[in-house]
Here is the input.
Amino acid sequence: MDLRFPEAEPTVAEVQALDAVLGVSVVAQGWEREHGGAHRASALRPRLLGALHALQDRVGWISPGGLGELSRRLDVPPADAYGVASFYAMFALEQRPTTVVHVCADLACQTLGAGALLDSVEATCGIPNESGGTASWHPSPCLGLCERGPAVLVTVAGDPPREAVIAPATPDDVAVALRTGPNALAEQAAVVAAVPQAASADSAANLVLLKRVGVVDPLSVDDYRAHGGYQALRAAVAMGPANVIREVTESNLVGRGGAAFPAGRKWAAVAGQPVRTHYLVCNADESEPGTFKDRVIIEGDPFSVIEAMTICAYATGCEIGYVYLRGEYPRAREHLQHAIQAARERGLLGPDVMGFGFAFDIEIVRGAGAYICGEETAIFNSIEGYRGEPRSKPPFPVEVGLFGKPTVVNNVETLVNVLPIMLIGGPAFASIGTTGSTGTKVFCVSGSVERAGVYEVPFGVTLRELIDLAGGVPKGRSLKAVLMGGAAGSFVRADEIDFPLTLEGARAANTTLGSGVVMVLDDSVDMAVFLRRIAAFFRDESCGQCVPCRVGTVRQEEALVRLTIGPRQEHDMVLLREVGQVMRDASICGLGQTAWSAIESAIDRLGVLT
Amino acid sequence: MTQTDTARIDTTRIDTRPQETPVGLPRRAVTIQLDGHEIKVPEGATILDACESRGTAVPTLCYGDTLDPVNACRLCVVEVENSRVLVPSCSRKVEPGMVVHTDTERVRHSRKMVLELLGSSVDLSAAPSVAGWMKQYGADPTRYGEIAKTVKQPVKIDNELYVRDYSRCILCYKCVDACGEQWQNSFAITVAGRGFDAHISTEFGVELPESACVYCGNCIAVCPTGALMFKTEHDMRELGTWDESAQRQTDTICPYCGVGCTLTLHTQDNEIVKVTSPLDHSVTSGNLCIKGRFGFQHVQNHKRD
Ligand SMILES: Cc1cc2nc3c(=O)[nH]c(=O)nc-3n(C[C@H](O)[C@H](O)[C@H](O)COP(=O)(O)O)c2cc1C
Ligand code: SF4
Ligand code: SF4
Ligand code: FES
Ligand code: FES
Here is the structure.
């Protein structure tokens, strides 16, 4: 291919930034082995996303010179690289200050005073995305820190780049960060602060998936092993791949990422594919507003994710695993990166895992601010260095997935469930919870509750019991509604919270568990503002590929604005429903298909807007 | 350009179009039910192929020409039993026992809404068939009100050969595929941005002469809405002199090299106003290069000398 590159020259800093990432990569052979080919551009293309991060982190934007240099080195058409860079919210294509303040404007933080915080930041820092000055700010979608909102993330480009979380944030904290840099801030809360059940020995004793959070040193592989780590992998190897899949199948474990697909069926399908290579993708994109459980697991117990992925890889014949980690999770990235390195050094990852005679290694792919990349086929395009647009299914990932090969995609929480399954066996696991929903579930309880955080309970606990566990709504307020499953989920009324939290219970209650979001709204929440935020979220996050979602999410927001602010058109309610219907029926992926669910349930169940 | 070449373009008429599209190797037949009728279609066919074989009309926008379907417009959706959502007929392959409905309430609603959503945001006036479908499905793009966001923007005129009027762009990805790996391998344009802000662009939006564009014009040929247009056509439309009913189409062989591409010359008042190539032509599949596509300007300049 004969590509034409722009003439703009990169700066020294940009060249250094690219040298640093394009010089080293542990699984580069894996990357370069499969794909590319004369047509679909360069074999180096999967390095595109990382290279864009390197430029952004170093100089604070993607300049024409930087993009040109990157395109030349990766042999990627510059227009393509531009198309990819412009897909992601974290990449700036115009120069802006090196310090950027991301202020969460999303749902849980709204119930915790994000509106006032945004106003005060605007008063001190001026309008969003302004290019002058030393720092710019912008309202951000959910930062996955909902248990201690209102949340702020500060990023500072440079060598090295710095990131800091401020949560909960006050206007003063933000002012300090802007004046003196994020280092002046106090350390962020300990990981375990997000697990209220860990505070008492009684409730901690019931934890399975979260039992090591706050107990082990997440940076020490020895401590992990001292707390039962790597026993599950030993058990898995002792029983052999086929039996591992049998146990997972008998456990009735279903996916925790939202779609509740049986994990054993997925694994068996990939294991049975004669084509090689097989890939494993651990989905840690976690961008559904109100979801932060995967962050807590990775930050608090990163080796458990590595061990679980290794078991899955062993059973399904995957040689390479990717953790697709949401871009705004600095501590999770640091802990996981450290853990992967430590595991390699101890031979727990690499060409001969623990001397058991199989190879497996893990690479982190850092997302760059795109909710859609958590969709199971968009994630492939993103890893491969393309725009994170969902692919059409069929074919399904188990047949044609990452780099066109059979691929297991599982959520972080789904994977770590495999550890107890290996240790107690599938049938024993299946006896926890209910017949239809087995095991424990990690719920992300946020909003108007006394003790927000992640709660691990057996399936079958009622929604009321879970809210009580979190201390209920604060004194002096009353429960108005609960948003189940996040922006893509649905509302239930205060008088509807006695259903059991199981897949079948949620279905019977005409709602969803989704990714485990339980967002509690009290009577102080302005539903009009809340619903407009949901609509704005989908409008921002639509990939733009298909008409029902690309235009429908805009029309939905416009109609909501008219219905809540005015001027109201006679037929706006009909319009809203008709737009909702085409998004649900004819969109390519789950984003568009669910973009109307929460708003519909607010109208039909909560009686808003009427 | 010699005198004889000019003469050949002006006078020769050779219709090289094959009578039928080649069907390839014999394939096994799959039985499906389409709107209540059992039919047999070759394995690997799409639902749209099946519809066409029965003469069932299905509107399509992003499908067509010889590019792989991206199935992004969702106009062609049909209802397949046991599928939670509607499926795009242009790209979904038939499976044995599939039960397909092309004219249910849900299908009509989705088609109406896709047309409305597009019609309320994009200028579809140069897209053939759309007005008819709007009528057929009862689409009313005006009901989204005055404030409805659109993609309206100034026409991009940065070269003498063709213009880009993205107010007419439905983001069907065809031009990107034609420019990229599926045809031309120039990779001058891409989809940039996200959501409603997604748009066709060069790197950093640079003008075409600074980009990798080689002016093959294959993107113009595939554009279903007239967003990409010969400058001649654009100028004539601006002047109000563009008149398709007064145009003649003449097939000829491109004189510039030995490949032998078929050119279809569109003439109005004895002037060549645009050049296409038959999609089903074995040599070009609709593709041309700058010489075949735009060389007529030299012909006409030469004539005027
Ligand atoms: C728009 C969209 C975003 C998604 N985001 C995530 C995510 O961040 N994490 C996740 O695990 N699954 C996400 N999913 C679900 C995945 O498509 C997929 O079902 C899941 O990763 C499969 O893993 P599981 O079976 O273990 O749940 C998302 C789906 C959609 C449609
Ligand atoms: S539904 Fe939305 S996010 Fe999904 S493919 Fe279509 S435009 Fe993209
Ligand atoms: S310019 Fe034309 S061909 Fe290209 S995406 Fe837009 S409508 Fe499709
Ligand atoms: S961090 Fe603000 S809503 Fe999740
Ligand atoms: S024609 Fe099938 S999706 Fe556009």
